[in-house]
Structures are given as C-alpha cells and as structure tokens.
Amino acid sequence: MRQTCTLIPTMRETPADAEIASHQLLLRAGYIRQSAAGVYSYLPLANRVLRKIERVIREELERVGAIEVLLPALQPAELWHETGRWDEYGLELFRLQDRHDRDFALGPTHEEVITSLVRDELNSYKKLPLTLYQIQTKFRDERRPRFGLLRGREFIMKDAYSFHLDEDSLDETYEQMKDVYSKICNRLGLRFKVVEADGGSIGGTDTHEFMVLSDVGEDVIAYSDASNYAANREMAEVLPIALNAEEQDAILPMERVATPNERTIEEIVTSLKIPIEQTIKTLLFLVDGQLTTVLCRGDYEVNEIKLKRVLHAEQVELAEDAFIHEQLGCHVGSIGPVKLPVGMKVIADWSVRTVRNGVCGANEDGYHYVNVNPEHDFAVDRYADIRNIQEGDLSPDGEGTIQFTKGIEIGHIFKLGTQYSEKMKATALDCDGRAQPFQMGCYGLGVSRLLAAIAEQYNDEHGLKWPAQLAPYQIHLVVVNMKNDEQRALGEELYALLQSYRYDVLYDDRDERAGVKFADADLIGLPIRITVGKKASEGIIEVKYRANGEQSEWQKEELTEKLQQYFTEL
C-alpha cells in the first residue's frame, strides 16, 4: 500500500486526555480517532490489525467445532423481560424505542437472543452439544469511559455460547474453551494469566477471566509465587488460620474505655497503643434489605462480593450513617458487636476468630470496649471467608504465598447452567423423550480490547512495536527523498519485488522530510523498516528491526533471502 493512497494521520503531540500508552500511541500513530466519549473509528491500520486478531480467533474456535453466526445488535425488550434483566441490568443498557413505541436495547451481550434462537430451532439431543459464536459490535453506556479502547461505550467483541443437555458435556466444553482462549493469547504473543473470577451481571458459576498483565490494568490479580494458582483479588479464597488454644492469651475482663476523638482503626491503634491485629472492625450492611453486622480484623477489608456469595444475597450495600444512628444510637466508627439488638445477624471473617482480648466499638459515641473476645463477650452466627486476600497470605492451593500484579481483562468464560434456559423455557428432548432445559456456557473475548492490550505490551518511547503476526503490514519501505531519481527508482523496484513475494508492504512514497518519515515509521511500529537513501546508486539499503532497534545494510540482491529467513525464524 502506498502511503500517499491511504489514511494514516499521525500526530506529533500526545492528546491531553489520553492517559495510558496504548491510547496515546494508537491516536498518535493514526490507528484510531474518537467520535464521542468511549466511541472510536478504526482507521485503516487498526482495521488491518483487528482482522488479523479475528483470524486467529476464528481459526482456534473453528478447530474445536464452533460455528460462526451473526446476531442482531438491536434486541427486542421482550426477550430481556423473559429473564428479568430489562430491569436488573442497570444504567449501562442502552434503551430505545421504535416509531411504534416498542422497546429495544442495543446489545451489550447476547444471552437472551442466542437462547431464543436455539429454543426455536433446536429441540433434540441429537444436535448437541452445539457451540455458536459471533464477532460483533456491542454497546454499554459506561458512566466513565476511559483508557481509550479499554473501557468504551461501543466495542468489538467475540461471544460464544454452548448448549448441552448435561453438566458433564458443559464441563468438557468449558475446559476446551479455556484451552482455546489460552492458545489465542499465546498466538497473539500476550503475557497473561487465567484467573478465577466473579460472574457479575452475566451470572453463572465456575467463571474464569483471562488477564493480560499490565501496570495500567484495573483488576488486581492475586497469584502464588510457587504454583499456577491465580485469581481476581475479589475472588481469591483466604484460608482460615488454625486455632491453637495453647498459644492463646488468657481471657481478660472486658472494659469500657473513653475514646472521645477516635473513630478510625488507625486512631484507636495510636490512642490505645495496641497492634492493629488486635482490633475488630464492625460494619453494618443491608443484605437484601435486612440489617446485618459484619466483622473482620482491623487490618483487613471486607469483600462485598464474597459477602454476597456467602449469604446468597441479591443485593449487599453499606448502611448509611444516619440509618445506623437511628438503629444503634451511635455513628460509624463507634459500632461494635457487643450487646446488639436482639435478632441482628452477625457474620464474621475467619480472622476475627483468632482475636484475643481485642478492641471494638461500644455502640456509644466516644467509647470502645477493650479485652473483647468472640464467643465470650459476643456471639457470631457464622464465620466465613469474607475479606480481601493480601500479599503474603498463604496461597489457597497451599503452595507458596500470594503476590499481586495488575491485569487487563480481555476474556471471560462462564458456566451459565440453566439460568437462562429455564427462564426462557428453552428445552430439548433427551434420549428418553423428556424435555430438559439446556445447560449453557458463555465465552466472551474483547476484540477491540485485545488491540489495545497488545499495544500496551508492545511499545517503547518512540511508538508501537507490533508482533510480526499482527502488524498491519510486515514491512515499512521508506524512500528518504522521492525527488531523487535513483532513490525513487530503487524504491519502486523493491516495492514491486516485495509484492511479487506476497509481503504486506507499506510504501512511504510521501514528499516529506526524512525525520518525519522515520518518526512516523517508529510510531506505526511495523516489524521491519527498509530505507532507501544515499546509497541507492550502489544498490545498498538500510534495514532496521523495530523490536530491538538493530540496523544493518544489505545489498538489494540479498533482500528476499534475508527477509525469508527473518520471517521463517519468528
């Protein structure tokens, strides 16, 4: 492709609102342009990279028998009402009406549509298992679009759905898809981890996320330093500490002490000169509308996702301070588990069980209890793992300790079970002629997000550095001075030669200064730059490898042989 014949609007300055490297460089190198907050146009270079990412995805999915379809982006509200998600999904759902006042949604996901399709078209076990997938634009009304393609309101996604009549079949496909996603990430050259995750608004169980390692990731990954264990921090299990009665201090009498200006854990620790591990943090939550007391050790944080799962709750939220004062007569910072109202449920993290002669609020502003002991001075209805894991904790698999890193979620897979099929009455006849609801799996992969994640891992201070298998073009052919007859002639000769060998070539035939051309070439980030310059009359060209910056001179007669060797060895 001649650069004069395509659209690559590079920029010298970094846009002020671009916060991370991938966003900055994709804008500066002319890959994308913003149309509105969280909405982008993919220019020719980005479109070529997207097509290569999609090709890898299609090859791996079709290798395991997945079938491609294309579902509507405009979805009738009636389908969402069948599952109850029209009201439950929240403000991220783009809702609209047609001229007849019928409600529709712009699809953020396609569980309802695909379940409806299979329900209407497949009614026998003989067609199962079946996996359908699509690559399509999705829409989510993000409150705060940011980080370019990583958190947008319109994005490209691959979503797949599998249908089965038994859990064993679903388990088999789920593991197969987990392997497929790993192969895709490896083929794309990504450094990633597969982590245990939460189902979120999609629902389901046994979910895993695929995280591309990056310092700009919004998710914290907890992983073992001695095994393959990894989980999203919000899902990582914390093992309970075994109690050893012989090592426990003697129980001391509980006392009420004045703490007139201390309300935070840190203030209490400083005022009473005690270790933070000796404090008990008390929080009040509304759990499906019921006021519940939640406890954890003062140096830990309650994990609301774990709490919700432990209590099998639909909604969990911290109670407002005014409501707490109305119920207990004190404010946040003075709450404690001693002498609570009759009937109030108390849920405690495992860490509370190990506190001996601890400190907690006295349910009276300006006072705390010291020498408080669980089961002696207050009752606990249930102990459970409801805190965030921390670095240095024992790994849940018992091997090594937990370390943290950040990641960008690019894929998420779920076992949906019969969550959607039962609500939508989607069944098939089994071998005995009985109607059974489909067991379903769901497998999402962010295609446009992959574009950004790859750019985030492959760049330097000069620009992008695409892996050869994903670069929009393999070779950047740059003629330094198009007004020089010898340079222009050799450039045209090499362009024709490389095309005859079926290389993808971007030919910089612009009438620009050499410095502009070289800066643009580094920004665009193709694997090899071939420069035709002052030695054109001698048939000598300069070759630069973008990955490591190495440069060398070749005779034009060596070009095809050395290029073949380079691309073969990748």
From TrEMBL:
Cross-referenced CDD domains: ProRS-INS, ProRS_anticodon_short, ProRS_core_prok
Catalyzed reaction equations: tRNA(Pro) + L-proline + ATP = L-prolyl-tRNA(Pro) + AMP + diphosphate
Keyword Cytoplasm: yes
GO CC term, one of those recorded: cytosol
InterPro entries reported for this sequence: aa-tRNA-synt_IIb, aa-tRNA-synth_II, aa-tRNA-synth_II/BPL/LPL, Anticodon-bd, Anticodon-bd_dom_sf, Pro-tRNA-ligase_IIa, Pro-tRNA-synth_IIa_bac-type, Pro-tRNA-Synthase_IIa_type1
GO BP annotation list: prolyl-tRNA aminoacylation
Protein family membership: Belongs to the class-II aminoacyl-tRNA synthetase family. ProS type 1 subfamily.
Protein name stated in the entry: Proline--tRNA ligase
Upper lineage: Bacteria, Bacillati, Bacillota, Bacilli, Bacillales
